[in-house]
Design brief:
450 residues, Rossmann fold, Cobalamin-dependent Methionine Synthase, domain 1, six-stranded antiparallel beta sheet, three-stranded parallel beta sheet, 13 strands, 16% strand
Length: 450
């Protein structure tokens, strides 16, 4: 139990299953339940927690916060699952006021006001995001047609899997992107412009200086250990939404989702499978990666024990920045060396941040491939847990939290995109391709279902 401004808080840790959270809350007689979302899988888990609270006929208000959450997501996805009060809290400093009110006489007034506000947000979201969908078969017919006849795939220099242990932190630090760092501290604007911002400039400059000093300590004193693994294999597509990888004498089928919204003439309905050569055209290649930062927890726990929240948060944010920088570093080395399809590439760090390179590295769970369950295949292909020690929770979040994984595509026309909403016909086809029940597919794809 941790004291917090006069109230008792149960710290459950990272990505705890819903049943454990609610069992503990009921056993301890919690007055309020709070969930913090730091990674995208936690958003779906929050919806599940709210649903379980309603099923259990619980009465406690549910507070939602954390870097990946938003008022709109809370209103649209979480609040409709639970009838006894759901509130989004923008940052920790505002939680004390909300908790005080929820434990006082004005509780019902605050919850009603919040409910009315969220109903308005739901209407706003529905009006803004209402799009016509086309039949899934028509979406496939509207795929992007790349010129495969004149494309010569580059055979990767690395055959299979390569592991990197205790990668040089100093080299990784060269790839740090500071814009997301400031966003994590709720300072809007890109770096370096944020340093001259009329409102945040002075504070941002001070924060950057302190962060850079901590980066020096992290590198010089080896606070973190960076481990990574990459892999490359022959691959083909089926001219629809399945990519087949040949690994260790077996075929691994990666299933993609396709944009299904109605588009103007001449515009395509994208799928990641479009960026891999169809089997009838020849053999292509595909890659995957996983990177992680070990050691951050030791320093986070140390600062927490010293009640030093500032440096605790600083370590957490910098661990996230280091793992993203590591992913950027290995992607560049893959393009130029390990895969070698862009050996003559010469880009600045700014160019890398703006993604001026050929190829992409989309991550399962993100806009182009929102299904987290494809991570299982990536982990199996790279033997991620055995090689670099990343494990997955029941919600398929990665532990350590400062971990990133994804796929490598090399085609110069490959690009990122947002999937948008999909229809029931694609859901059923996808579930069939994956050998998954409709119920499971609905659970994992709920954010993108029409």
């Amino acid at each position: 139990m941790l004291g917090c401004n006069g109230y008792d808080v149960i710290d459950m840790g990272v990505m705890v299953p819903a049943d454990k959270i609610l069992d503990t809350a009921e056993r301890e007689g919690a007055h309020i339940i709070g969930l913090s979302g730091l990674i995208t899988p936690s958003l779906d888990e929050m919806v599940h927690v709210a649903h379980e609270m309603k099923r259990r006929n619980m009465k406690q208000p549910l507070l939602i916060g954390g870097a990946t959450t938003s008022r709109m997501h809370t209103a649209v996805k979480i609040a409709p699952q639970y009838d006894n009060g759901v509130m989004h809290i923008l940052d920790a400093s505002r939680s004390v006021t909300a908790v005080s009110t929820l434990l006082g006489k004005e509780k019902s007034v605050l919850l009603q006001k919040t409910n009315d506000e969220y109903e308005g947000l739901r209407q706003q979201f529905a009006n803004k995001n209402k799009k016509d969908l086309i039949a899934y078969k028509d979406a496939i017919a509207a795929k992007e047609q790349l010129d495969w006849d004149n494309y010569i795939p580059t055979k990767p220099a690395v055959d299979g899997v390569q592991v990197f242990k205790d990668f040089d932190l100093g080299e990784i630090a060269k790839y740090l992107d500071w814009s997301p760092f400031f966003i994590a501290w709720e300072m809007p604007g890109r770096y370096p412009q944020v340093l001259s911002d009329e409102k945040f400039g002075a504070e941002a400059t001070k924060l950057l200086g302190e962060a850079q000093k901590m980066v020096e300590r992290i590198v010089n004193e080896k606070w973190f250990t960076a481990d990574g693994v990459i892999g490359f294999w022959p691959a083909t597509s089926n001219n629809a939404d399945t990519i087949t990888i040949e690994a260790n004498g077996a075929e691994v089928k990666l299933e993609s989702l396709r944009q299904q919204s109605k588009k103007a003439a001449g515009h395509f309905n994208f799928s990641l499978a479009d960026f891999v050569m169809p089997k009838e055209k020849g053999q292509d290649y595909m890659g995957a990666f996983a990177v992680t930062i070990h050691g951050a927890k030791k320093h986070i726990d140390q600062f927490a024990a010293e009640f030093d929240d500032y440096n605790k948060i600083m370590v957490q944010v910098l661990a996230d920045r280091f793992v993203e920088a590591f992913a950027e570093c290995l992607h560049e080395k893959s393009r130029k060396e390990y895969w070698g399809y862009a050996k003559e590439e010469h880009l600045t760090n700014k160019d890398l941040i703006w993604e001026e390179y050929d190829g992409i590295r989309p991550a399962p769970g993100y806009p182009a491939c929102p299904d987290h369950t494809e991570k299982h295949k990536l982990f199996d292909l790279l033997k991620v847990t055995d090689n670099i020690g990343i494990t997955m929770t029941e919600s398929l979040a990665m532990d350590p939290p400062a971990s990133v994984c994804g796929w490598y595509f090399a085609h110069p026309k490959s690009h990122y995109f947002g999937l948008g909403k999909i229809g029931r016909d694609q859901l059923e086809d996808y579930a069939k391709r994956k050998g998954m029940s409709i119920e499971d597919a609905e659970r994992w794809l709920s954010p993108v279902l029409e």
